[in-house]
Amino acid sequence: MDEPTALPPSASEPPTGEQLPPAGPSAEERQWAMLAHLSVLLNLVTALGGPIAAFLIYMFYRERSRYIGFHAMQSLVFQLVAWVGGGLLAAITWVISGLLTAVIVGFCLMPIACLFTLIPLGAVVYGVVGGIACSRGEDFRYWLIGDWVAHAFR
To answer: Which of 55, 68, 45, 62 is nearest to 131 (CA)?
Structure first.
């Protein structure tokens, strides 16, 4: 007697004994979240191009994907705080330091002005780290800002 042959599993059913991969953001969601974080690079050639790009990504994708909306808003807030706020702080420090050089106190303030100048440059590096993490599908959060934006998204 012939034994009945087993039918191959259909494409719609997962093979038994194997687990499905964990559900996460799609490739398109990862790409747009990465671009939102990498928009900080636009600040190197335009003054406020990065926050504008992050805002536009947020406006276009906030209804379609919470993942993209969260990362775009997080990037926007981070760039406004670190790039714009840090840049203004550095500019004010350099102006005060320059004005006070006439009375020698300004020379003592120049190292502090140099440190404040590093804030926007550090923001670029941190934004690239966020973009790389999102391209891998990881849940990246900026220090302090990520939790604040997550709380606002509830």
So the answer is: 68
